[in-house]
Amino acid sequence: MNTPAMNVSAATIARPARRRWHRTGWGAMTALILVTLAFVSKYVGMNPANFLVQQREVYLAHETMLALHICGASTAVAIGPFQFLPALRRDHARVHRTVGITYLTTATIGGLSGLGLAPTAYTGLVASLGFGTLAVLWLACTWTGFAMVMRHRFADHRRWMIRSFSLVFAGVTLRLILGTYTAVEGSIHTWLSFHTVYMAASWLCWVPNLVLALWLTRTSPASTTQQ
Hints:
Blueprint: H1 10-40, H2 56-61, H3 63-79, H4 86-91, H5 93-117, H6 125-150, H7 154-168, H8 170-188, H9 194-204, H10 207-219
Helix pairs in contact: 1-3, 3-5, 5-6, 6-7, 6-9, 7-10, 8-9
């Protein structure tokens, strides 16, 4: 005869482990964002001495566009993680909506300004296409997510906003790639130049993020639950 304990499903048993992994992932993601924001903060004053040397003249010629991109993308990546907290969505729906509108606004500003800056990217066509594609997909995912919530398709809304955030997180992965290169540059610069790394990073900073987001939103049970 089956006891209640024997009738507990495997999914129920696995749920606490998933929650621990979600909390660990959320914490690691947020920590990386905070480190990146601390680094990017030096650009807020728009001091040319802090600009990428190879792009200094370009940035000076597009200061307004650069300022919009920094402010929009930085705000979006800073507030994005809080939208994935179940307690916020469940118990503070009004706050969730307010933060969501702020994310939509700042993501749009960051995406449009990024698209405007893409043609001026360091290293030329390859990086311009990489950053330009990133901007277009970021805008598309963000506004598709908004369209889904307006239709009360909440599960689809969550899927698209996860994809959107994976793209704004490109700002973090870009800093990780370039920072790692800078840390080991002394030992590899003879065969791998900053020019090459930057060109590759214009794609590597977001393509793996988006692939992971697409996989998670297709296979993760949490991604299909309603708000």
